[in-house]
Amino acid sequence: MVPLLKPVERSAGLGEQVYHKLRALLRNGVTVAGQPLQEVQLAEQMGVSRTPVREALKRLASEGLLVSDGRSFVVPALTLDDVNDIYEIRFLVEPAAIRSIAKLTRSPQVRRSIEDALAATARAHKAGDAEAFREANVCFRAAWLALVPNPRLVRIVEQYSDHMQRIRALTLGDPEIRTTVLRGLNRITAELAAGDGDAAALAMREHLAEAKRAFIAAVGLTDNASAAGASPLHTPNRPVPDGNRPKEGRAR
Amino acid sequence: MVPLLKPVERSAGLGEQVYHKLRALLRNGVTVAGQPLQEVQLAEQMGVSRTPVREALKRLASEGLLVSDGRSFVVPALTLDDVNDIYEIRFLVEPAAIRSIAKLTRSPQVRRSIEDALAATARAHKAGDAEAFREANVCFRAAWLALVPNPRLVRIVEQYSDHMQRIRALTLGDPEIRTTVLRGLNRITAELAAGDGDAAALAMREHLAEAKRAFIAAVGLTDNASAAGASPLHTPNRPVPDGNRPKEGRAR
DNA sequence: TGTGTGGATACTGTATACATTGGGTCGGAG
DNA sequence: CTCCGACCCAATGTATACAGTATCCACACA
């Protein structure tokens, strides 16, 4: 007996809205590493006061999507060390997470959303649409994550996926890499359909390994000084919109 | 070449201080599950305005140490499901983290802080001091975590350890359990000294398994209705300090 | 006596005013 | 010409005022 009057969609607080807006901004890679995010500026751009903006910035910073540069917040410039660290986390949690849903995905209607996302990914690949491919990729992850029973595990996976998603445009622009990624997703989905958790975890591990390899290779072409492991991976490649100069030296 | 002049400890903002104060409160188990934390009340208790308090509460909530109950925040009552979820995370990350430092801990002076903490733990055990034991336990973890090169991994470990630490007093009050814990720490330290990462990881895994088993057993005695997996593990066992009545019926 | 409605109250969400600090620039002296 | 210092501005940290809303209690009516 589903209640016919679903509770009124009270638009969540402004802080929440601002948070999601900024997070989407970061995930889509619209922002530039080193670009400072200032309360007043964002507040007037979004037509709210500083308070919700401040709240959202703090929250993003506590999740690592922003770093504190002295007083304000900047988009972090990921170093090769950072990428290694992030993938170390992902290697730990994502295979385990995918393993935990393999029991469920034997059932076709449970697999439904995953296979829809996979189909969307394949369509985007066929169309050669890098942007749609990236989005479908996000949907695929969201689809299988929705089945993971451990919400804390979901949270970790989402968090560190988002960290990479921000700079994923660098690799997914290459059609060849897209082919590899799609193959990985296909294999993961197949193992899920078979209900074999260990095989799905293994597929995920190899998928991650491919993604990491591709990423480092792609970056190696752009930034060949990364052997030292301390150079920022993507320096601003277009002029910063505002008059702020992004200082390269990081305070940490 | 560690910088000899560590940056002067400028007393961070009030928000930071309030955050650490509240976090310590939660970690020491002073608070009671279901107890609402209200901005005005905390603000006047600590002599600051609502703004820093609000900031700290949001931050704690984003880390899962508090949950949003309608509008305000309450100390979460961990269910058996929660404990299972938390330990699933810990099983994933802590063995990996300890493995990553085994290369370093061959050197005695690197092991120094760990063995100091271990010695403190042994002393507390001999003295039968449960409180000191718990603190030394925290120090032990802090000591080895300080060596983990991946800061994001450190963050995750700290976060989910703290979740358990809040209710750890339940198990560490038992001398027998303390004996088991101390044996686990001894073994971990020994494997670290040998520089055997895999063995250290295994030791950690078994240590965690023991801790989890002890915890569930201890709780099973206290709260025998937990078989359903949805009952709060520790209900308020003493009157709430202030005049607030903790409403048992939660709005959700 | 029970239920429903209305008001009062207390809390959070948001905005804004004020304080403080850090950086940048301009001017003067060596 | 360069370097140092002081002032100014801008951005954040903090406090507080205001608004909205949910909860609780009391009172009235069935």
Gyration radius of chain A (Cα, Å) is 19 Å
Structural class of chain A: mainly alpha
Main pleated-sheet profile of chain A: 3 strands, antiparallel
What kind of assembly state do the chains in view correspond to? homodimer
Describe the structure.
- Two copies of one chain form a homodimer.
- Chain A has 252 residues and is mostly helical.
- Chain A folds into two domains: 14-76, Winged helix-like DNA-binding domain superfamily/Winged helix DNA-binding domain (Arc Repressor Mutant, subunit A), CATH 1.10.10; 80-227, GntR ligand-binding domain-like (Four Helix Bundle (Hemerythrin (Met), subunit A)), CATH 1.20.120.
- In chain A, 62% of the residues lie in helices and 3% in strands.
- The first copy, chain A, contains ten helices and three strands, in the order αβααββααααααα.
- Chain A has helices at residues 14-27, 39-46, 50-62, 80-99, 108-127, 130-145, 151-165, 169-172, 175-194, 197-222, and strands at 36-37, 67-69, 72-74.
- A three-stranded antiparallel sheet of chain A has the order 1-3-2.
- In chain A, a hairpin with a 2-residue loop joins strand 2 (67-69) and strand 3.
- Chain A is globular, with a radius of gyration of 19 Å.
- At the A-B interface, helix 3, helix 4 and helix 7 of A face helix 3, helix 4 and helix 7 of B.
- Chain A binds a DNA duplex (30 and 30 nucleotides) through residues 13-15, 38-41, 48-52, 54, 70-72.
